[in-house]
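Aim 2, interim progress. The first record below pairs a target sequence with its C-alpha cells.
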Amino acid sequence: MKKSTLFILSAFCTVALSACNPFPKDDSHPELPLLEDLIKDKSKFKKVVGMGNLSEIIFLKDDRILLKPDNSNLPFKISSLKNELILEEIYDWNVPFYIDKQGDLFFNRQKYHYPDYKKHEDFKTIVVQDSLNQKSEEVQNLNDSVGLKALKDYEVELLKPFDLTPCEYIIVNTERCDVFEVRNNALIVRQDEHFKIDFLKPKTDITKFDDDVLIAWHNGKLPNPVYLAYYQINNMKFKCDNMTYPKTIVIGGKMHIYVNSFGLYEIL
C-alpha cells in the first residue's frame, strides 16, 4: 500500500475518533460528591421511600404516591407521604391497570372510585388482541379465506360500540392505533402496554451545569461508555452516572428528589 494511502487512512481514523471523542477523560469536578453518597447526608436529605421490592414510584396529582411492585405476587400500594395507606391490593399483570384523569382506578376488571377507593364494582374490560386471539382459535379449523373473513368481521363488530375501526399496519402506525381509555362504559385497550396512569403529577428535570464527561468503558458483548453528568439544585451540586436521570418533584409543598435506583428523598 502506498504511503499516501496509509497517510489518508490514518488521518481519516484520527478525525473519526476525534469526532466521537472515544477516549476517557478525568472527572471534570472531582471535588463534587456522587449523588448516591450525597443522599446519605441526613442534614440535606430525608429518605421517604426506598426502592425495595419496587419497580417504580408513581406520583399522583393529589400528592399521593403509587408504589408499583417488581413482582406480580406482591401488592401495589397507594399511600400518602405520611404513610397513610389508602389501598393495597395484588393485581393481575395480564389485565389492564389504569387510573383515569379523575383519579378513578381500574384493575382486575373492577372500577374503584376516587378518592378513597372503598366503593368498587365489576367493570367491562376489553383487551382487543386477547379477544382476537381467542376468536382466532375458534376459527382455526376453517379454511384460510373463510377463517380470515370471520376474524375480520368479528373485529369490526367488537370495535363498533366504541367508535373504533380495525387499524391497518398497526406495527408502523402504533401512535394512531393505540387506545387505552374508558369508552361507552368499558375500559378498552388496543396496545401492548397494559399499565397506564392519566392522573400523574409531572416530575422536573434537574439542571446540568456542565457537559457530561466520558470517564470509562465497560467491557461486555459490546463496549459500553460510562459518562458522568453534573447537576445543580439551588446551591447544591453533585454528579452521577448520566443514565441515572434524577428528577425533582414538589409534594405537599416540599421539594423532593426521585431516582429510580435509589427512591424518593425530601430535600431539606
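The second target in this work package is listed in the same format:
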Amino acid sequence: MRLNRFAAVATAAVVASTLAAAPAAAHGKPLKTRSLAAVLTADKSGFDRNGHDFDILTAAVGAVLKAKPSSPVGVLADGKTRVTAFIPNDLAFRRLVADIKHTKRLPGEKKAFTAVAGLGIDTVESVLLYHVVPGATINRKAALKADGARLKTAAGSTVKVNVYGRHWKRVALIDADRSDRNPRVIRFDINKGNRQIAHGIDRVLRPINLP
C-alpha cells in the first residue's frame, strides 16, 4: 500500500539523520537568535481556512517534540544554531495527503494533520528533518546563486536546488520523488536577520519516490 510504503521508507531515514554543519552564508552584521519555532508558534490561529500559513507544520513539530523531546527536530527551537528550513504551507500538506490517498479532494487542515500524524511519529520526524539544512543560513540572495547545489539535510540525504526563469528567477527543490511536481519556493526569508531562516514552499519534500 502506498501510504505504508511512504511511512516505512521515510522512517528508515531517521537512522541516518545528522546535524553535520554545512558552510554558513556570509553576512555583513551579526545575526540575531530568534528561533524558527518562536516564529511558527507566534501564530495562535490554529487550524483554519488559510492555506498559506503553517498551522499543520507547527502542529507536526510540536507532536514530534512532545513524543521525542530529544529529537533533532528540536534544533528549530535553538536560535543560536544556524539552520535553513524549507517549510511547506498548509496547502502543501493537504495536497500530500490527497495524493497518498489517491483522491483529488483536499482534506481540511485538521484532517490533513491527523492523516500525517497517522504515519507515525518516526515518519513525521524524518520528513521534517528532510526539510532542514543544518549549519547554514541561506537567504534569498544566496539561494538564487545556488543553481545545481545539493543541500545535505538533517535527515542525511540531499535535495537539489534548481534556479529557473529567464527574467524573474525562481527556486525549486528537486527531491527523491521523480513522478510529482517539485516544490517551489513561494516565500523567501522568513525570520530574516536571524541565524535561523526559512523559505515557504508549496509542496512537501518527499524523501522517497511515490509511484
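The domain at 2-201 is CATH 2.30.180.10 (FAS1 domain). This observation will shape the mutagenesis plan for the next reporting period.
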